[in-house]
């Protein structure tokens, strides 16, 4: 069982930056593919970014060049650095840990970007 706790959400102005963090319990964090998802009001949850155990990253097109996902296996933590934020980035952001077909989710953290 893995528990995920997100932090770093809040209100930010358009064009600003914010960093989310997700701390994971357990001692096998390094084998998981970690990801960030988001759910905007009235929309379905979408994948934002992932980082594999081998540090390969993947991003949804809408955040490429603005967001950076990274992981620190020594701290069992995954980060999402968000720059040049836009109002359309407003959403609840969820941390995800994936190992084969097993997924774990955090409780979510609200990010609100004001115009």
SSE pattern, N- to C-terminal: EEEEEEEEEEE
Major β-sheet profile: 7 strands, mixed
- Class from secondary-structure proportions: mainly beta
Task: Please give the count of helices.
Answer: 0
The beta-strand count equals 11
- Through-space gap between termini: 40 Å
Classify the beta-strand content into a percent band. Answer: over 45%
Write up what this structure looks like.
Helix content is 0%, strand content 54%. The chain has no helices and 11 strands. It has strands spanning 4-7, 10-13, 18-24, 33-39, 46-51, 57-59, 67-72, 77-82, 91-99, 102-105, 109-114. Strands 2, 4, 5, 6, 9, 10 and 11 form a 7-stranded mixed beta sheet that branches. Strand 7 (67-72) and strand 8 form a beta hairpin. The termini are far apart.
Layout: helices, strands, pairs:
Blueprint: E1 4-7, E2 10-13, E3 18-24, E4 33-39, E5 46-51, E6 57-59, E7 67-72, E8 77-82, E9 91-99, E10 102-105, E11 109-114
């Amino acid at each position: 069982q893995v528990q995920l706790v997100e932090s770093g959400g809040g209100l930010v102005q358009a064009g600003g930056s914010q960093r989310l963090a997700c701390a994971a319990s357990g001692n096998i964090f390094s084998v998981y593919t970690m990801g960030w998802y988001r759910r905007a009001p009235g929309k379905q949850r979408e994948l934002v970014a992932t980082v594999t155990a081998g540090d390969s990253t993947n991003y949804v097109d809408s955040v490429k060049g603005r967001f950076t996902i990274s992981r620190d296996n020594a701290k069992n933590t995954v980060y999402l650095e968000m720059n040049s934020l836009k109002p359309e980035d407003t959403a609840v952001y969820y941390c995800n840990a994936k190992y084969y077909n097993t997924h774990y989710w955090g409780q979510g953290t609200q990010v609100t970007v004001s115009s």
